[in-house]
Amino acid sequence: MQDFGEAFSLALGLVVSPSGDLAEIVALSLRVSLSATLIACLIGLPLGALLAIARFRGRGAALVLLNALMGLPPVVVGLIVYLQLSRAGPLGFLGLLYTPTAMIIAQTILITPIVAALSRQILEDMNAEYAEHFRSLCLSRLQRVQALLWDARTALATVALAGFDRAVAEVGAVMIVGGNIDHLTRVMTTAIALETSKGELALAMALGIILMALALGVNALVQGLRISAERQEAHA
After folding, report:
1. For the chain, what is the domain count?
2. Is residue 122 part of a domain?
């Protein structure tokens, strides 16, 4: 067990001059989380737009389900994905368990409902504002979806960033399906948990500093996008 002061000093040194292991862990974390965010946006944004403009029987139940899925327990998602990808599962033949791909799948399942629900609220408000204009142009449903997604691109970028923020901080699901294997599936959150349990605080603290810096950077970017959007609206 390292002394806190010594560990913090070593952690700062690792952040300033990252070792190969640290850089590898951070790079894998970013690759997995960015991939999951991209896939979640490709699924969640059109789904959110469709729910924003469509009116159908059972829509209320669909919205309740979508909002409930935002609170999916990560370990439950990890367990479900594990059961599907294990050798005894229906997708076991793919050999994806304990790979970065399995981690991307788990993170995608976790953040897609968040992206869809947040984008649905944004696009539904915008659809109500544009409703008369859309009717005058006789736009099809697909054209309305495309128009909404384009006009709300700044707000939807903040949704994507929120999804990434959620993904990069995930530990339970990726631990189950990734296995925290060194040089293969070890990401920042799982490495922090492992190193802390071993009493090796320097690497854990260095990764924690980087993770916090990422979270602050994402939040600063979200705030910047909001300010930019407000200025554009003021000048419009």
Report:
1. 1
2. yes
